[in-house]
Design goal:
GO terms for molecular function: transferase activity. Helix content is 24%, strand content 36%. With 98 residues, it is α+β, with helices and mostly antiparallel strands. The chain has a single domain (5-92), classed as Aminopeptidase, CATH 3.40.630.30. A five-stranded mixed β-sheet has the order 1-2-3-4-5. A hairpin with a 2-residue loop joins strand 2 and strand 3 (23-32).
């Protein structure tokens, strides 16, 4: 049986939420700025671990930020690591401290 995964942007909670099989599996918190989205924390529930869902969440969230014309600022270690492994976002990232 295949579980359907989808990611939604929840502006009220300042996070992207990943749902799998209709359940909230995880989220990526962000702090919105005028031209930037600062990712601060990513979390996948223990019961959903080991399925690669954090990568699904990161990809969808980062793609959304790029489609909105914003710059990604990765404070969250997971998002930063994902960006280092996926160079397709290089032109849309401002690393902290730059």
């Amino acid at each position: 049986m295949s579980e359907e995964n989808h990611v939604v942007r929840n502006d009220e909670k300042n996070r992207y939420e990943l749902y799998t099989g209709g359940e909230l599996a995880g989220f990526a918190e962000f702090s919105p700025r005028e031209r930037e989205i600062v990712f601060t924390h990513t979390e996948i529930g223990d019961e959903f671990g080991g399925r690669g869902l954090a990568k699904v969440l990161a990809s969808a969230a980062l793609d959304d930020v790029v489609s909105r014309g914003k710059t990604i600022v990765p404070v969250c270690p997971f998002i930063a690591g994902y960006l280092r492994k996926n160079d397709g976002y290089a032109g849309h990232v401002r690393w902290p401290g730059e």
